[in-house]
Amino acid sequence: MALKMVKGSIDRIFDKNLQDLVRGVRSHREDEAKYISSCIDEIKQELKQDNIAVKANAVCKLTYLQMLGYDISWAAFNIVEVMSSSKFTYKRIGYLAASQCFHDGTDVIMLTTNQIRKDLSSPNQYDTGVALTGLSCFVTPDLARDLANDIMTLMSHTKPYIRKKAVLIMYKVFLKYPESLRPAFPRLKEKLDDPDPGVQSAAVNVICELARRNPRNYLSLAPLFFKLMTSSTNNWVLIKIIKLFGALTPLEPRLGKKLIEPLTNLIHSTSAMSLLYECVNTVIADCCVCVKTDTCPRPPQLCVQKLRILIEDSDQNLKYLGLLAMSKILKTHPKSVQSHKDLVLQCLDDKDESIRLRALDLLYGMVSKKNLMEIVKKLMVHVDKAEGTTYRDELLTKIIDICSQSNYQYITNFEWYISILVELTRLEGTRHGHLIASQMLDVAVRVKAIRGFAVVQMATLLDNTTLLAGSGQHKSICEVLYAAAWICGEFSEHLEDPVHTLEAMLRPKVATLPGHIQAIYIQNAAKLFAAVLNGQQGTPDCQTMQESSQLLIDRLPLFVQSADLEVQERASCILQLVKFIQKLQHKEVEVGEEVTALFAGELNPVAPKAQKKVPVPDGLDLDAWINEPPSESESEDEKPVAVFAEEELRHARPHHTEVDEKELARRREARKQEQANNPFYIKASPTSQKDSTGVEHIPVVQIDLSVPLKVPGMSTSDKYLKLEEERRQRERKERGKKEKKKKKKREKRSGMGRRHDSGPESEEDIAPAHMVDIVTEEMPENALSSDDDEKDPNDPYRALDVDLDKPLADSEKLPVRAHRPTNILKSPADDGEVQEVPKEPKKKSKKEKRDKEEERKVRLLWLRCPNGEIQCTCTKSSKHKKKKQKKDKEKEEKKRKKQHGHSGDREGEESVQNGTLEEEPLPVCDIQGNLQNGSQVVVSIIFENKSTSFLKSMEFNVLDSLNSKLQRPEGSGPHDGLTVPFQLPPGVSNEARFIFSVQSIVMPQRLKGTLTFIVKADDSSTHEKLDFKLHFTCSSYLITTPCYSDTFAKLLESADLKGTSVRLQEVSLPFHHLLAKICFHHHFSVVERIDSCASLYSRSIQGHHVCLLVKYAHQTVTIDAKCDESSLLGNVLEEIKKTFSQS
Amino acid sequence: MQFMLLFSRQGKLRLQKWYVPLSDKEKKKITRELVQTVLARKPKMCSFLEWRDLKIVYKRYASLYFCCAIEDQDNELITLEIIHRYVELLDKYFGSVCELDIIFNFEKAYFILDEFLLGGEAQETSKKNVLKAIEQADLLQEVRHNYFL
């Protein structure tokens, strides 16, 4: 031993330590990967050595490599080894490595429970500290459940150092294991009065975090915290408390009023900006609440003032936060913020882009009907001088956002808006062409009165194609042409010179545009053509008609050759149509009406949520494949490039017909009916009828058409701004006159209209320039009126929403678990009381939730575990619809199995009646290993199809753990499933075998697996998945081996065996039943039996001897056990205990 | 706090501490994305940015960037303060700390951080206490170390 130690130390001298590694990595910059792979090889060698110092050094190096981005998950087990070293130096390194690379999916975590428990109770506070720190990073639900009680005890440790850490880590435990919250909370509350300020602040921290998520349960603590707030001087604590109050006030408005005073004092007195900021934020939040309940005493003037100071500060950080907080006030007190418009606009010039963006956000909320045009004008100036496309794009989207918010609420003059949009098209290299385009479409479709103006503008845009298409590689802006073409086509009746526009749309240059735009061009050229024909109808002069037919026939062939399928198809179709029309024209047949009929009807916008709101009819499973899933490569090219809803709808239609013809028909029917009821048009406001002549008197001619390379616009939007001002003035005067005539008493606020001081005018006074019909969006008739679209069912904090004042029920107490032999020894009193009760409620509610979610899915399968062999449980429940049985059998010892088959079957039947299976594995089952091969376990599974459908393509897959692996054929990857070599017609069962290789048999194992298969019904087939768990208990590694009493005595005498014992209470079985049960479930054989005392023996597949001495008296069973592998023994005893606690 | 990253001006990661369990793949992705974003910011810009649904607070000390991710309701200024505290602690412990100190003694840097923050919350606001705990733990380590050799 000593020699080994010395040898180890000598070896270490030649090992690379961390510093060497770091140095090495730095000096091998060019071939870092190669160098590191050689280092990893070295480390692997080091890890194989017995010397813990070498191992710790290796793990330390691995931690460094992990940071550089190399995978070290393969060394997880070694990390556990180093963690369990008794020396602090190594333990520290082990825990550090674990906290850096363990996560929920790391399977060795479950091996650490006992080690961590040991460290937590270590007499050395730094051992405990290190364990707590590590645990805070990698705590899993299992660890949390098993250790909750230990950590809770530490909360009352004598050393504040430990108390503090224990309190903080409790928060993580609550998150992972919500059941622990109620039992632990009283003690947590106590810690608010801890003499150590560190512990106190930790408790405040935890309660604050808890309360933020579920404030309602913490209202009763408000007085306590109020006291703390007024007495504490620690800013860290104060911030947390204030944050806590911020969460509580929405529930208790009176609290908000009470808080205002102390908070105001703090705001005035504190010099810490962080505290000031927190106070201001909370006051703002309070006022938000007050506004909701209409009890707000006054707008947060003080806050706004303070924020103004922050914003004017030269520190960018404060400026940023000031703007951020300002935007919160804005939501409830827009008036008090609007007076600082100058400041916000000033921030637009800041050199920091993030500040400019914040300011933009603020502007979004500051606009009103009155100042919209002015603000947008300023923004347009910024667009012009902005460098960097990202910011410019941001400005662009903001302008559009600002204008379009709440259904164009603030726009009074849509001519102005259209000209703004047209101006924006001049931006080079913007990514938001589609955004501008969809706005143009939206406005033109939904605001009827603007269509005439929009069409004229769009026609001009179309005329300037050269400018747009020619401008660089950023094609996005040409999306605008998509909108332009569509608007001109759809509302062609407003065109002044349709023939000219038709010509513009068919220029050869158009062929350079993206395919989906060309397609729209062609389609709308056809619409225009129809309009021309219709327009010329009845006039004697048919030259125009013939000219335009000829134009189409001349130009379209270019598009017929297009590589784009859509373009080609439309072009060729329309070309033939026009040729046919031309023929008719020669015969002087009037065709105008027929052609127009092709495009009759109006297109209404569909609400974005409409599709989602259509209730799914019974029996339709949208997730099921219609056909076999197509290979990936096929669909790639066909993806529609288009960005517009309508376009996509068109593309999607063919698929829908495949899905369900009936459904489509129904939907169409619904829409027709709705059109009949005609609820689309909502008048913006009753006062808006006044000035509908506005469109006509705007001198559109001023747009300079003769200069082709200039997009008209810049001048126009300004012009509309002016016109709008004049209009408003005029209106005010008229109204003034009227009111004078009527001699109303109401005092008239005069409008001495200058652009900038039109202040006194109130919002409602401004009437839109002309009748604004904003068409609403269509919804399906039987839309589900639920508004809970955004609720997240997976919120991790929801589970923590529990009533903390209710007294604790017994079942809620934290489990004091003792499931390793060492602990059993320490606490014999706990024997037989092992309870997993606390786990139940959570599981159930979870399952219920899942059940609800999956309501639509047909529940297909269930599993049971008959024959007492291997245990599979499934997470889905079945409700007698279609069932599938899964039995597990073991290859070994078939004869014996038949004997015991009956009782096992009964076990299975019970679960049939329940119809559900718990997620927790049932306890009675076991599995046996392969006697010939100490590291193999054969699992035979009987698949029984209890459904009425045909099941095929079954694939069995198990997620390997470090210890147990499913043996797969050579050449397949570690995650491939195994094909079950048969198919199952209804009612048939068959057996398949799977071999697992197992390394260590001293611990029980739980493997997760899935079975995927295809259910073939009469007319459809669906893919189904079934999750299950395989539970390899330690007993299953034991093999019933007969043993003579003399060999048995010798075994007991030898010193190799370590002993332990358990006591089972309240066992009412007769003794021989008890023995039979142990023998059957845990594979023991009776060596000798004298009265109520018996010796039993078994052997593991790896040759461990297990000896038991069972004594029975007064319903109490004592089992003294010996084995050469103590953890194996411990687990077997644990399993025996479970067998009896459940029977 | 969700996590803390330290990286150099060249984008090399020097320290990472995750208070939420994530897989290595996600961690790498987040790190890469954040390092890029933060390095791309101009020196005069403010220390906060919104990223996904988190707020990022970062500060540059010499050639090192300290970068924390906090939740929506958390206080940015106090997070800046935490970063500053940590730098002060490192400075005290190493004696005018430089990037190389952290590179070569990265495990020490972690130990200090662990004494200062636990589970993403500040556990000890007194610099003296943190350093005392670290020194004592170090002492423990040394004693055992010598004994072993």
UniProtKB/TrEMBL annotation, chain A:
InterPro entries found in the cross-reference section: AP3_complex_dsu (IPR017105), AP3D_dom_metazoa (IPR010474), ARM-like (IPR011989), ARM-type_fold (IPR016024), Clathrin/coatomer_adapt-like_N (IPR002553), Mu_AP3 (IPR058898)
Composition-biased stretches (Basic residues): 738-753, 877-886
Keyword annotations from UniProtKB, A to Z: Acetylation, Coiled coil, Cytoplasm, Golgi apparatus, Membrane, Phosphoprotein, Protein transport, Repeat, Transport
Organism superkingdom: Eukaryota
Alphabetical GO biological process terms: anterograde synaptic vesicle transport; Golgi to vacuole transport; neurotransmitter receptor transport, postsynaptic endosome to lysosome; protein targeting to vacuole; synaptic vesicle budding from endosome; synaptic vesicle membrane organization
Basic and acidic residues bias locations: 653-674, 720-737, 793-815
Keyword tRNA-binding: no
Pfam family membership, one: Mu_AP3
Membrane topology (UniProt): Peripheral membrane protein
Protein task: Part of the AP-3 complex, an adaptor-related complex which is not clathrin-associated. The complex is associated with the Golgi region as well as more peripheral structures. It facilitates the budding of vesicles from the Golgi membrane and may be directly involved in trafficking to lysosomes. Involved in process of CD8+ T-cell and NK cell degranulation. In concert with the BLOC-1 complex, AP-3 is required to target cargos into vesicles assembled at cell bodies for delivery into neurites and nerve terminals.
Name recorded for this polypeptide: AP-3 complex subunit delta-1
Species for this entry: Scleropages formosus (Asian bonytongue)
UniProtKB/TrEMBL annotation, chain B:
Membrane topology: Peripheral membrane protein
Domain AP complex mu/sigma subunit, chain residue ranges per copy: 1-140
Major location (coarse): membrane
InterPro entries cross-referenced by the UniProt entry: AP1_sigma, AP_complex_ssu, AP_mu_sigma_su, Clathrin_sm-chain_CS, Longin-like_dom_sf
CDD domains, per database record: AP1_sigma
Subcellular location: Cytoplasmic vesicle membrane; Golgi apparatus; Membrane, Clathrin-coated pit
Keywords associated with the record: Coated pit, Cytoplasmic vesicle, Golgi apparatus, Membrane, Protein transport, Transport
Family the UniProt entry places it in: Belongs to the adaptor complexes small subunit family.
Protein name: AP complex subunit sigma
Organism field: Scleropages formosus
Biological classification of the source: Eukaryota, Metazoa, Chordata, Craniata, Vertebrata
